[in-house]
């Protein structure tokens, strides 16, 4: 989705608060922290993704006449506020954990430092963009791990929750290690390899499956043939017959199974193909796959060479949303936090330091051992470095995931969560802010 | 999302098959049926939604130079196919069940009748657009039912799976009976009322909660004040204090609870407000709500007047994808079907007749008692009627849902599924097509 229109992709209360801040002369700098509160047992880690798209969007965010007219039509914003929006350029700083980095609960993925009205307006947009890609990359990392080196193809566009989720999802999947996408637009937009086989409809459009196979293989000699439209093993035998018929001209790469007992069918198909001297034909499996089913197929010894994964990955079916938050942690240089039950936030600008032993969330000014994960990516409203190529994020993900403890890379819940500590200085700041707020809000006056 | 670019929102195999059909001279009319294979126990019915957006998109679908260049870059399509795409105008017919109609498994939501290459190219787009809105409308109908007449506000944009899901979701939610959305862009685009209160960040930006309440109420006199940033009951008392302080000028409409034990807090808050003579202040609840939690709150007698519902509704958390399919059911006037295990399709062009006793899926040419649900909406690539106002779909949904048997409107799984029969003529056609295909594909040649 282009950035146009996204300036209105905000909740009404963000405009109301921005207007109130302006009207009250509250123009000091705020820090907002974007983080995930909890990791459920279905995820041992999250894979940060989406920051590059957010930065691009923030650089381009403008309120044109049409958007201002929409806001004016709401009948509650005065002209001076609309004039401020007409001049709006995001002027703040953004710190982000690079795409492709494993992250954990309560670690800021993004920190925005900007005049409070500006930073407030980004809330919904930042949460949606970074949240969606992080959600989908995190799911895909599990699918890729389960496939144990076999290529995974993204087949999810048709079942994704909307157009943007399919496109942003294809990008996030590729960062997480998915080899290619079936979606042509996603491939073109993000530079992802595009892959595809054939659908049942092509087979059905012919009276005889054998005729469909022959026609498609002549058109696309190195295709994968889908064999389960009618009777799967008969379909495999027809591929063998086509190989005999075409002789030297037979260059079909493999077959696809899309229904039934994939382990049993793959085993039988492999036997038929091998007996016919077609050992080089690959077996491609799809249909209702997720990381658990892939792992079970491979554990059962199913001779499957590649997987097409759709629905469950495309909507992160076992965890369709993250408990993501975008919270004010400082205003006018003073730490802020909520005290609501179960929804506490760490105050101030922060940094995450990663060592072999685990992570420490610290104050941004601290210098602790390890790698500082939050990097400055925008200052003064401008990008600090060119957009990172997707391949770099993908490589970083592979390297960083491989460096995680084995228990975290497993599909099952890690017995012991990854250690994320809070530095003594941040803990002290937390205590002081908490005490200050409690004192200021004692009683009910 | 605008239609621009959506011409490439297709899986590569759709272009490959379209090209193969063209190359083979297969230009006969195809029928593709869009339907949901199964309803899981979490849904007693689905609410059809998204057809209007699909029709708009199909009318505008064009392959411009940029899209053609993307396809050319794939290196597998000859210029004559690209030239055909350059001239492409969807020329087919579309039949759709009107938005806001409850539908069931195996009932076609959409049937596309067009030259096979054209109809094939729409597969991913049609499934994604109609599937997403139907998924989200179906979830929202349950939330609205649980709220039992109390307004539900869509707070889901931040956690929705992408920008498009948030915008299309707001539309689908409104059709299903949700009163308003927090998203300004969704409101502007779809003409949905926009609503909002205030965030914790506004309270936090002040040293004292009382000061934040006073400032916000002066700016927005008829606001809802969010009381759970620090201590919820203290927050309620501060609203009471503000009412005393402001006297006649106090026009605050209510309070919002966003965390903790909402039933207990609502009861206590109601007591405090009533004791202070603020019986007219409403209690608005949000935070982790879905249809079950809303039903439990109301069953417990919680004095809540309106609900803000986000995550669980915005991603249809208990059912994040439908088992939706887009299948060839006829080509060149001859019925087609898959025989894959668990994935059978009903052949030919169909109609769904609804009576008080249930539905019957029939051949399109049949005239059975009851309301014919599938209506022609496009012919020759053009809309047959102006876009239906969203309010009409919303009204239709309310009326049609109210007409469902009570067991289907309940949150719990209906003991007996809604009766969906197959007409004798369709059953006979199904048997004949099946026998024809089995005979044509007997053996393995």
From TrEMBL, chains A, B:
CDD domains, sorted: NAPRTase_A
MF terms in GO: nicotinamide phosphoribosyltransferase activity; nicotinate phosphoribosyltransferase activity
Transferase in keyword set: yes
Pathway(s) served: Cofactor biosynthesis; NAD(+) biosynthesis; nicotinate D-ribonucleotide from nicotinate: step 1/1
Class of the enzyme per the UniProt entry, highest EC level: ligase
UniProt family annotation: Belongs to the NAPRTase family.
Protein's UniProt name: Nicotinate phosphoribosyltransferase
Native species: Neoroseomonas soli
Superkingdom as given in the UniProt entry: Bacteria
SUPFAM superfamilies linked: Nicotinate/Quinolinate PRTase C-terminal domain-like, Nicotinate/Quinolinate PRTase N-terminal domain-like
Function: Catalyzes the first step in the biosynthesis of NAD from nicotinic acid, the ATP-dependent synthesis of beta-nicotinate D-ribonucleotide from nicotinate and 5-phospho-D-ribose 1-phosphate.
Keywords per UniProt: Glycosyltransferase, Ligase, Phosphoprotein, Pyridine nucleotide biosynthesis, Transferase
Known EC number: 6.3.4.21
